[in-house]
Amino acid sequence: MTPLGYAEVIRRLGLRARPLPRPAFIGSAVNRRVDAEDKVLFPVGVAVDDTPVGHLEFGLRHEGVNLEVIALAFNHITPDQLIHRFRQAPNGEFIRRLCFFWEWLKGQPLDANVGVSAKYVDAFPRADYVVATKPTRNREYRVNDNGLGNPRFCPVVSRSVFDAMPSLVALLERARNDANEYRADGIYDRAIHYLYLSETRSNFAIEKETPSSNKEERFVQLLHRASEQAIVSEEWLVELQNAVVRDAFSREASYRSRQNWLEDRAGTVTFLPPSPQMLPGLIAGWEEFVNDTAREIDPLVKIACASFGFVYLHPFMDGNGRLHRFLIHQLLARSFSSPDSLIIPVSAVILRNLPEYLRVLNDFSRPVTALWEYRRTDQGPDILSSPGDVPYRFFVADNEVRFIGDMIRRAVEQEIPNEVAYLQGYDRAFEGIDRAFDISQQEISALIRMIHSNGGELSQHRRKQYAHLPAEVLDGVLSIVREAFGFSTR
Fold first, then answer.
1. Which domain holds residue 243?
2. DSSP 8-state secondary structure symbol assigned to residue 130
3. Does residue 94 belong to any structural domain of this protein?
4. Contact status, residue 82 vs residue 94, Cβ threshold 8 Å
5. Which end of the chain, C or N, has fewer beta carbons within 10 A?
6. Which run of H or of E encompasses 431?
7. pLDDT tens digits, residue range 41-73?
């Protein structure tokens, strides 16, 4: 099959790019466009200018905006090639968008001196992509600059994914309403206290760490103060990194100046973040994306792209994962003022859905790492060549938005109500046991937790542990706890 569009640009120019999800080909046996699961087929004779510029136009028309391929191709396409095609069709939508992307990516004018009289078109068609609510206009090509980010960091999110996501505003409104309903009897404040602690422990547990009590308390305080930081900066992130890393030797004074990597237990490299030479431009673009309020990006999209974008850039040698998850809280707090210390326990939900979380991370890291060339050594990878910064600047963030939206939904609809329900059941059980039996408060609390965590049962091992209590007392405690939490008797 003969490749078309972006696939042909990659082949013809020898680009080092991630595999296309559904490359386009000419199919000899089709007489119309056929969308298969792993490719798109077009009939023989489909209209395409058989040049790199022509195939980029075809890609924009039929395959959407692939900034990675476009940016890489522009390293091989001269301004004259674009200008020649532009002069042939000065009002053509796709060549105008290509010329806009050239200047946007390169930061320099084409100087085509061609007048355009057509209507404005979107750089990213809003029917297909989540876009900035307040775009800027490029008058020369009559193109709306409505991308989510900037030339140094610009994730792309499909409209179809976003439209299927729950409303973040509605979810947080529900969380606030629940808080107001339960605050009067003090249950919610106790739940919030636990959720801050649970979120802290879960954040570290994802990294297979158990924080000390001091480190635990510091992170809890960071979560309480998440809304205080208006501007994300290197100085602030360094301060956070110093607070969350495992020991004093891992603290850093700035973004990293060395190559880092992730590897599995067998020593196989699983992720190579951008080189230290590429990092300054990338992290500056990321900071600009995070701090930009003028373009008005949907909060859920911004939270997902910013938090995952941070961990993909991996700007520190240690602590990137914990900071990436902390940023979810910081951006939530900044997007939705939360004076009542409302917390959404995202990390706690992630910990319960760890395979799904790892799939999202791996879907980015594996194809990007495959673009590197290196030799394995005892000291780590010996880098032979890197793919540059383009794969980290531009990525489709559909999985990331879907994941973050789902984790916030589960936190609001399940995690917080479950904790409130647990405390209500705990109080009923405690009051009933305390009234019925002469047992210390410490023992009552321990027995309630044991029975609840064991699904309404008290094992023989635990009965032996409390052998000093009569069997009928333990049976009575078990009955009260079952009733308080609604466990069925067996």
1. 162-419
2. -
3. yes
4. no
5. C
6. helix 416-436
7. 999 989 899 999 999 999 999 999 999 999 999
